Amino acid sequence: MADKAQIQEAIKTQGEVVRKLKAEKASKEQIDEEVAKLLELKVQLGGDESRHQFTLKTAKGTRDYNPKQMAIREKVFNTIISCFKRHGAENIDTPVFELKETLTGKYGEDSKLIYDLKDQGGELLSLRYDLTVPFARYLAMNKVTNIKRYHIAKVYRRDNPAMTRGRYREFYQCDFDIAGQYDPMIPDAECLKIVHEILSELELGDFRIKVNDRRILDGMFAVCGVPDDKFRTICSTVDKLDKMSWEDVRSEMVKEKGLSEEAADQIGQYVSLQGGMDLAERLLQDAKMSQSKQACAGLTDMKQLFSYLQLFQVTDKVVFDLSLARGLDYYTGVIYEAILTQTGPVPVAAAQNGAGEKAEEGVSVGSVAGGGRYDGLVGMFDPKGRKVPCVGVSIGIERVFSIMEQKAEASAEKVRTTETQVMVASAQKNLLEERLRLTAELWNAGIKAEVMYKKNPKLLSQLQHCEDSGIPLVAILGEQELKDGVVKLRTVHSREEIDVSRAKLVEEIKRRTLDV
Amino acid sequence: MADKAQIQEAIKTQGEVVRKLKAEKASKEQIDEEVAKLLELKVQLGGDESRHQFTLKTAKGTRDYNPKQMAIREKVFNTIISCFKRHGAENIDTPVFELKETLTGKYGEDSKLIYDLKDQGGELLSLRYDLTVPFARYLAMNKVTNIKRYHIAKVYRRDNPAMTRGRYREFYQCDFDIAGQYDPMIPDAECLKIVHEILSELELGDFRIKVNDRRILDGMFAVCGVPDDKFRTICSTVDKLDKMSWEDVRSEMVKEKGLSEEAADQIGQYVSLQGGMDLAERLLQDAKMSQSKQACAGLTDMKQLFSYLQLFQVTDKVVFDLSLARGLDYYTGVIYEAILTQTGPVPVAAAQNGAGEKAEEGVSVGSVAGGGRYDGLVGMFDPKGRKVPCVGVSIGIERVFSIMEQKAEASAEKVRTTETQVMVASAQKNLLEERLRLTAELWNAGIKAEVMYKKNPKLLSQLQHCEDSGIPLVAILGEQELKDGVVKLRTVHSREEIDVSRAKLVEEIKRRTLDV
Fold it and tell me: What is the pTM of this model?
């Protein structure tokens, strides 16, 4: 390790670099990088002068949740969890980090986004990238061959954060998966039903669920004359159709990926198609498509899927869309993705960045749920390669949070961050002990109660606290009330006050706060 | 990087090492270390042969939670959260990792247990070690000067795991803290009231809450003639009194830490003292103690604290114990720790390791909650060093889980892992569509319902699933029922069946499962 003097020298120089970049208004990324180097030097040096200048931030791409955000988050989670429970799901949890090797070779080129832990001796560890691979590891490790489970937890991706659009490096996933050997498309249909229920209940505006099948895609590529070794890379180009025009996608296929123009154009024919069961039937008759066994298998299942979706009454939102590809390697059958079609409210930050008008034109927050069938993943972990067929869906909750936060900002009624039913207050001095005694009585009776941590607080400040945090009732103690064995119970919004005997107080508070 | 051949060679050699250690029944730690090295080599090599042999485990010191464990965990969390809400706490969340620097210099020598992330460019990050330092960072960063909040999340310590005693490297903490400038000991008393409520409600058996004050400890050291620069190290020796005899503690002080025998013996006099308000009063009169301003301040507050604890009716479990020291550096005033005094049930694993009889003699699972006042921590983050007084408590939930799991094992009634109210079944073939249609009707009416993902499941297997997972009702469909527009509703435990009209079914299921 270099000596103090050297480091201090290095810090000075690096400090200049940072100041210069800031002066030049260099890109945030560039500045962050240099600041990080500076930070690193200061950590080496230790000592205080570093701390105050730098630590007052959270890590790049992460955020704290304040009480208001947590109140909203709790509401959203309750909606999602009760849906999962309504469908009979069990709950599991896995560690936030896995052996590095467990994640190796599961995410294709996205693997570069995995967070590794520092090698401090012992095992090589990485933060989980999603909840699906740990789930597959769990199944293989515990020899579970069928389970319907949900798992709600944070996952980690060293991606370029776009926090205004609700894209973070640490974010929640809410996963529901069905593992087991069952008759075709029944669990798959339930997953889509769940997406439909959750997005409807969250009232995020109108949405659409695109459905496709990896076998249909691969079959299509085959009959369009895509060489086998180009399937994946062409697939990932097709995946860009939600962001890029067909012209741009086509030229990427031809110019960058060396696909023949004929093949590209044939693909163009197919990926423009959208429909329902009817489309699946048409394609089964399609001269070219019908030549591919894979495609036919996928199309037959797609018909089956839609028949179940009709029973579930969710076909109004579901579209069979041949342009849906999805990135992840491990999908083997049906794939789906839900998008919000309405203009979401404009995230404040975005608006500030002048993205306002774009939003009004109707910017979509993009995919809010996605998933599919992955019948091969568990086998990758099983010593004997035993397969456990799985299908699941993941709700991308951060975007939902951003929208809900905006709604809350917009709406008049303010979000409560506590559930306190009553404030124990006093107008007179020297009643702290009486206030504490009564508060304890209420706590012991299961009442949610607060008391000010002051010997002699002003009544006004006690009432103000109720106004601010939406506490509906105040129990006011005074010499007279104590003599009479009563409490003055005040309703905050109406300001109406009545005397209630100590004996009846708990009951009265419960009666008046049934809704809380 | 070495070439493939070299690595393969190294893998072979390392493989031998591991096999040899296993043959010699070497210590688990030792084997783990060597296996990790082997693993590392195989990761370098990549390829499949490594995966199947090794990844089927979770990282050292971590565990998965299966549905049964999650059901128990949910119950425990609900008890704790409703207590926190009863006391009017708001909820916040912070990222799982912080800038490394944020954690630097907060944990004394425990800092070596912090998990660092690998430097992949950008900022240097570490996994949080507790929830207190991130909370202080949050307060300073958001200029919050008073808040009552709870935070339930996982923290990370590269400690030697003792999983049989519920000690892990990844574990939950449930923290409740009160930040703000208030009159002395009122928030402190509420924290102790909360510990009392939670440990009582969890029914973990009898418990005791030890209380002391950093100022009393320091004052005591001063009047006993401990040199100022030895306070912290002597303090950490005193902290061992719950595990070591006084003799051993004394000799560590004298032999290892070079304290004079006189000083050690004087300390011995004090740390043997336990009591309540009376003891605080006695020590205020104590010739030696009364010479220390610090001690007197601590003792006066201790009296105040006990007077509030009397109002809260919790003095039955609280002991003023001068031997309580607690490790963490950041405490400045009152400190406390709760321990279970009863013999906990014997953890299975422990019993297997022959720790059984020790358990019967009455092994305590040790501390289940702890906390104290830390008035200086926020100031360490504030650019201007502005202080925000804080007091808080942390519930060490993993040990509680272990106990609850044991209780569940012991008790007859089995833990339900789902909340499903009804199973939609059929005795006849070709009724899949009817089952799906009815199930969707129930889901849409908010009923928790399951259906088998088979075209023609056996009635017996459908009923068996209900027995296994505790589903109380079965809605049976048959040709006849469909004709009559009814459903046969079967109560699983009594096997009694009645016909219910489709129109009344939802209402009837709700009526029969009110308790669920």
Answer: 0.86
